[in-house]
Amino acid sequence: MKAAILNEVNKPLSIEEINDPSPRDFEVLVKVASCGVCHTDLHVMKGEVKFPLPCVLGHEISGTVDEVGKGVEGLTVGDRVVCPFIMPCGSCKYCSLGRDDLCEKFFNYNRLQGKLYDGDTRLFRKDGSRIWMYSMGGLAEYAVVPYLGVFKLPDNLPLNESAILGCAAFTAYGAVKNQADLRAGESVAVIAVGGVGLNIIQWAKTLGAVEIIAVDVKDEKLTSASKLGATHVVNSSKEDAVKAVMDITDGEGVDIAFEALGRPETIIQAFNVVKDGGKVVVVGIAPVGTSVNIDIMRMVRRGIRIIGSYGARTRIDMPTMLKLVSKGALNLQETITRKYRLEEVNEGYTALSKGEIVGRAIIQP
Length: 365
Hints:
The protein is 28% helix and 25% strand. By secondary structure, the chain is α/β, with parallel strands linked by helices. The strands form 3 sheets. Strands 3, 5, 6, 9, 10, 17 and 18 form a 7-stranded mixed β-sheet that branches. Its cofactor is Zn(2+).
């Protein structure tokens, strides 16, 4: 099969022919229809997040079941499916508590070593040498996924566009529903409205937020934010974002501020727009070692909660998400603004790195 392989950091991905992968017990082989283009991949490509090389990136996919391994239940060849980036093992301490977002095997085996849970990859070159997997390694024609991370798509959802349910929408749902515990009637600010930020806006609207303030430096992204549910927009390259949010909220601040970029300055921005007793939910991934200076006095005296959010809880949240999206909770077509072929993968990630993509782009092998 063809796959986009990262052989060296800060070098283009290489389109190569490698061996077709095969699923082992409790795994599913998915013929990839689409894979999302995500900033997390960029961090690996730039060497900002350590990951073994060579590897295949791409961690949110949609496709059809091509083969099932022994022990797989509820899935058959030909099923249309979506696969989120957190692939729970189902048996570790955190999975047993329903906290799939903290799965120990996913982090220790996959995120640190590029392996699945028997300690090996499923990707090999023609000479037998190993290629490591970032999640399922979705920038390829086929991907092997542990079956607990494979979900049937409702019939009314489009196959290609549904790929973004695996990270952009999945990450946003976890932030809004679980970590923020957003309640109907609350106000929110979303700092940085790219692929994840736009989905935070949509989930916040679905779950009952009455005031949704989008903050970004690009007018075209803010236009999309308005279409998808933002009640107010602030271009922080043209005005003081903190002052603007305070003016909108009559000097009070918002109940919840989401930060979806992973930069110290935007985390501070989120901290400064939240009201006393409010929550700051940090979603954006930053290069390893990045830190931020927070006013501890205000955090303590005014009861500000700073919460990290990595993703949703796969087995619990994905079925609910799919039901909600099938009823119109998210506008997938409006969120996806660019589509590339696998051979154009470097063009897609270059555009993402330059901040040119509004919403989400997908790769279609």
